[in-house]
Design a protein that fits this description.
The protein is α+β, with helices and mostly antiparallel strands and 246 residues long. It folds into two domains: 1-32; 34-242, no CATH class. It is built from six helices and twelve strands. The chain has helices at 4-32, 101-114, 129-139, 147-152, 184-188, 215-226; strands at residues 36-48, 51-65, 75-82, 85-87, 93-96, 142-146, 154-155, 159-160, 165-169, 174-178, 193-201, 241-242. It has a six-stranded antiparallel sheet. It has a four-stranded antiparallel sheet with strand order 4-5-9-10, covered by helices on one side. Strands 7-8 form a two-stranded antiparallel ribbon. Helix 2 packs across helix 3 (129-139). The longest helix is centred in the N-terminal third of the chain and has 29 residues, at 4-32.
Length: 246
């Protein structure tokens, strides 16, 4: 008994020490780590037989950091906002889908491809995203990415590193279809094309209370797509309306 009691206390102290270390690790670590976000107004422009039409939406892209644990690197990407939408003259709807991490990297990608800030053009030796975001928010460049630039990032297997462009026809209840930038007229018809994207950096937060009138139509179109024999698209409502609680 005289030897087991000290050992028992040592085990209890060791367990208490481990517990205190874990609690301190998470509390202090999460306290020191900072989340980063950038807000930008994303505009999609569509050429129609009646002229160019544009649709815009404010999007917040966030890099959330937490203490790494059990294989999780502690870095997560979130997006808040709504997919920019253009209503064509015949009533069809064209969207630039939200893409989570794609919207996080979009400001950096667009700045690089248009060389609006020279140091971003050196992609392999670029600075961290945090530094690039700080520069973009300070300079507030108006970035115009034309369709040719977007097509250079488009591959047949993986699609584009820019937002996926889709169209649906509410009048005919047709499912959502992806628009290949190189063949816009094949999907949209003569005289229609995606002319590009525009980014403008803002301080205004996204309108998370936004309840678009097309939401029910989109929900039905997604259901139709899942039950059809058309090529599957990895599309969910979160690609069109992304809200964050609080």
């Amino acid at each position: 008994m005289t030897f087991s009691t000290p050992r028992l206390w040592l085990r209890k102290l060791a367990g208490l020490g481990v517990t205190l270390f874990v609690v301190t690790y998470f509390l202090v670590g999460n306290r020191l780590l900072r989340n980063r976000h950038i807000r930008y107004e994303l505009t999609i422009a569509i050429q129609t037989p009646e002229g160019v039409r544009r649709g815009s939406s404010i999007i917040q892209a966030t890099i959330e950091r937490s203490v790494p644990f059990w294989g999780d690197n502690g870095i997560h990407h979130t997006v808040t906002g709504n997919a920019p939408m253009v209503e064509l003259p015949d009533g069809r709807l064209v969207f630039a889908l939200l893409g989570g991490s794609g919207n996080v990297s979009l400001p950096e990608l667009a700045a690089q491809d248009t060389n609006v800030i020279p140091f971003i053009s050196d992609w392999k030796r670029r600075k961290s995203t945090n530094q690039i975001w700080s520069r973009l928010k300070a300079k507030r460049p108006h970035i115009n990415v034309d369709a040719a630039t977007m097509r250079r990032r488009e591959t047949p297997s993986a699609g584009s590193r820019y937002p996926t462009i889709v169209v649906l026809d509410p009048a005919n209840a047709k499912p959502i279809r992806r628009i290949e930038l190189a063949n816009c007229e094949e999907m949209l018809g003569p005289g229609f094309s995606v002319t590009g994207l525009e980014l403008r950096f803002v301080d205004t937060p996204p309108d998370t209370a936004f309840d678009p009138p097309w939401l029910r139509t989109v929900s039905q179109a997604l259901d139709d797509l899942r039950s059809s024999d058309l090529p599957r698209l990895d599309v969910d409502l979160a690609n069109l309306v992304a809200r964050r609680a609080g």
